[in-house]
Amino acid sequence: MTSREYHYKVQIFYEDTDHSGVVYHANYLKYFERAREQIMGAAELVRLWREEGLGFAVYRADISYHEGAEFGDELDIRTTYAKESDYRLIWTQEAWRPGGHKPAVKALIHLVCLDRDKQLKPIPPIPD
Amino acid sequence: MTSREYHYKVQIFYEDTDHSGVVYHANYLKYFERAREQIMGAAELVRLWREEGLGFAVYRADISYHEGAEFGDELDIRTTYAKESDYRLIWTQEAWRPGGHKPAVKALIHLVCLDRDKQLKPIPPIPD
Amino acid sequence: MTSREYHYKVQIFYEDTDHSGVVYHANYLKYFERAREQIMGAAELVRLWREEGLGFAVYRADISYHEGAEFGDELDIRTTYAKESDYRLIWTQEAWRPGGHKPAVKALIHLVCLDRDKQLKPIPPIPD
Amino acid sequence: MTSREYHYKVQIFYEDTDHSGVVYHANYLKYFERAREQIMGAAELVRLWREEGLGFAVYRADISYHEGAEFGDELDIRTTYAKESDYRLIWTQEAWRPGGHKPAVKALIHLVCLDRDKQLKPIPPIPD
């Protein structure tokens, strides 16, 4: 079962771009993570980490890049997720430029939950 | 003459912290820049860059660190600025943690305006 | 035809890690890029950019994460590449921790060559 | 008493630059930290962290920027340090571009030592 689609805005600053004039390719992984953390809730993530010693880790990321975002863009990060098993969340995430007709960047991100000893744990409930 | 005080929120994500558990010290310079760009206006900065070939550069940054921000914090970046001369803006910027009694990090940032050949140009008007 | 295997060392600093104690997942894309640039040659990349207006862009990146690198690690980035067509280079890249029995992180990176107008161009020769 | 001068090389990659064509200003703090960690010794820093729960934190950074480093540059980071007191190290660090007649960027960095509860501790001995 796939979640509803979530939207998250990312403003592109100097820090995000490289000398070719577009966003540095690794940075989209940061935007996708910000969007996921917004959905999971920063306060809940902090609680899980401090009280239960649980954190999330990316296990797999498949990214395709179609167009480079530029300084000044406000990207729309569109996210859905599905719980593939008790141990894995699969996130479909896209970065849309303003006025874009298709996503500039798309990714499939597999997330697992680890305890402080880096042992796999069941995915805690995600607030809706 | 000093501007009014502006506020800008920064959510602290995984990407912001380091293994000591607090925000990596260089990252505050990013947050301060985001706050300045919000004040100067992303659209106007893009226009200046594309149409007039003008960009801003940090000439001097004096930063003092009093407390480390943590994952999950929403920082309040407080900013004022003054035009010291036709060629230099001086920004006073602070990062406040939620519930903080004093700034976690403070900085004085000197900004100049450069053309594409890295020559000094007069500071363009800042929208209020 | 696949190239020989290249090795590139990456020292893990504070800046590389996040508060979970391991390297932030997006950073491996940086290490892989550093290794590719070492192979292609920084001076040649600068020449291509300045004289011919050519740069490289990641078109696709498939990354799998098996183990987190830690502060103080010296990673061994192992790289091979193959020219899939006149327009695409495919890089197989792995990050090995010291004493590791398998790669901590593996990636398949598709690279294309773009001119300043972001139009696809044939891949220039790679020095061996 | 001031230490001898140490040299550390930093290769400038895509990741380091921004869309204005030069190195993003916050990144010099990373290069200076890499140089300091090289001097203090990664293995010793790991040992201090794991066995004694001690880490270093930047308390103050005064940076002046004179020239922007570019993609392809190999910067020479020149570092000296002095122990100002039992609780504070002061580092003088410069980034030199190839063939430069003066430092592109200069910084004075104050470092303190903290335990896991963020309490000030005496600076441990630095290997020479």
Q: What is the general shape of chain A?
A: elongated
- Summarize the amount of helix of chain A as a percent range: 10-25%
Identify the most extensive interface between protein chains: A-C, 23 and 22 residues
* Radius of gyration based on Cα positions of chain A: 15 Å
End-to-end separation of chain A in angstroms reads 13 Å
- Helix-strand pattern of chain A: EHHEEEEE
How many domains in all of chain A?
1
Main sheet of chain A?
A: 6 strands, antiparallel
Could you name the ranges of chain A where pLDDT drops below 50 across 5 or more consecutive residues?
none
Name the assembly state: homotetramer
Number of strands of chain A: 6
CATH topology (fold) name of chain A: Thiol Ester Dehydrase, Chain A
CATH class of chain A reads Alpha Beta
CATH superfamily membership of chain A, which one?
A: Hotdog Thioesterase
Describe the protein.
The structure is a homotetramer of 128-residue chains. The first copy, chain A, is an alpha+beta fold and 128 residues long. Chain A is 20% helix and 39% strand. The first copy, chain A, has a single domain, classed as Thiol Ester Dehydrase, Chain A. In chain A, strand 5 and strand 6 form a beta hairpin. Chain A is elongated and about 40 Å long. The mean pLDDT of chain A is 95. Strand 2 of chain B pairs antiparallel with strand 2 of chain D, so a sheet runs across the interface.
